[in-house]
């Protein structure tokens, strides 16, 4: 801890005394971003590092590799869907691991337990505090799919709905799925 504090203090002192890039070794390798602000070399890979951490912790928590699966997070009028499928139709081992994991997720969320997403993302995802508070107004339903499974999240409570959508939009961004971050008008609920 002392080493970290010393390093931070040293960098702070160096940058406060440095009049220009040429007098500070930390600033010599900086670049300027589109907004004209200097990009710190110590923070340049944080988004890549975070993504790698999400993938690594996700593989551990889920019990299968993200490289063998496709995740989707869908917003619906009454909540949303978490869906995971094995990439290869013949990969029944991964399909079964997905089903086991999402059965577990539905049970845990129903029991007001969001430890898995907090572990995977290394933070409390947006929406989780309200989803915990409004737990009795939300249902989590597991359903198998041809190549995996899904958890349908439903509510009639406006605050819970907003929280569910915040949670799913965060998942879309952090898992880099490319799914729409709004309700698709043409979306057909595959549980019906």
How would you portray this structure in words?
By secondary structure, the protein is α+β, with helices and mostly antiparallel strands. The protein has a domain at 46-175. It is built from seven helices and six strands, in the order H-H-E-E-H-E-E-H-H-H-E-E-H. It has helices at residues 2-17, 25-28, 46-62, 92-110, 115-121, 128-133, 158-175; strands at 31-32, 38-39, 69-76, 79-86, 138-144, 148-155. The chain has a four-stranded antiparallel beta sheet with strand order 3-4-6-5, with helices on one face. Helix 3 packs antiparallel against helix 5. The protein is globular and about 40 Å long. Residues 1-39 and 188-192 have low confidence and may be disordered.
Write the layout of secondary structure elements.
Elements: H1 2-17, H2 25-28, E1 31-32, E2 38-39, H3 46-62, E3 69-76, E4 79-86, H4 92-110, H5 115-121, H6 128-133, E5 138-144, E6 148-155, H7 158-175
Antiparallel strand pairs: 1-2, 3-4, 4-6, 5-6
Helix pairs in contact: 3-5
Structural features:
globular, alpha+beta, single chain, disordered C terminus, two-stranded antiparallel sheet, 7 helices, 192 residues, four-stranded antiparallel β-sheet, 45% helix
């Amino acid at each position: 801890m002392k080493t970290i504090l010393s390093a931070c203090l040293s960098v702070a002192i160096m940058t406060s005394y440095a009049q220009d890039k040429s007098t500070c070794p930390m600033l010599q390798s900086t670049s300027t971003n589109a907004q004209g602000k200097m990009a710190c070399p110590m923070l340049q890979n944080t988004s890549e590092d975070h993504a790698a951490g999400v993938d690594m912790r996700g593989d551990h928590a889920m019990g299968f590799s993200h490289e063998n699966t496709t995740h989707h997070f869908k917003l619906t009028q009454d909540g949303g869907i978490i869906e995971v499928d094995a990439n290869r139709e013949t990969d029944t081992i991964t399909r079964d691991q997905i089903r086991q994991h999402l059965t577990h997720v539905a049970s845990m969320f129903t029991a007001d337990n969001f430890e898995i997403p907090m572990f995977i993302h290394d933070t409390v995802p947006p929406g989780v505090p309200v989803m915990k508070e409004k737990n009795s107004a939300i249902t989590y339903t597991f359903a198998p799919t041809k190549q995996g499974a899904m958890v349908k999240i439903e509510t009639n409570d406006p605050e819970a709905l907003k929280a569910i959508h915040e949670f799913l939009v965060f998942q879309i961004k952090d898992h880099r799925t490319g799914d729409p971050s709004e309700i698709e008008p043409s979306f057909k609920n595959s549980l019906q």
